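Suppose you are handed only these lines of text.
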Amino acid sequence: MIDQFNPAVCGVCARSAIGIGHSPPRASKILWLCDDPKCIQAAKAVHSMKQDEFTRIESLAAAKGGDAGIEFLETIGKTDFTAMNIDEWSEFRRRIIAGYRAALLADMTGEVVL
Ligand SMILES: [Zn+2]
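From them, the structure of the protein bound to zinc ion can be written out as follows.
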């Protein structure tokens, strides 16, 4: 689980933050962001989100990332990691992370991911 105010990651989609921050007047913490316009647009709502709600959404996104990895395994017809070549293994990991980030962004911004 990440802290939504971690300066290293975007507080909306978990990609690398690039130094863009959002903080309402008199707020004690800065929500760091990537350069995705959707993240910048969602910053105000995410900043006021309670950590337990953020954690709940993040947990759902992690599950969706796992689902994306399973989808890839079904596509290549392999479930034995030792039978994968390096490209398949790399793509499997990329799908999980990309699925997690896409779901996190969608859930934070209220979009629906199928
Ligand atoms: Zn972002």
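What can we learn from it? The chain has a mean pLDDT of 90. The helical segments are 37-47, 51-76, 86-109.
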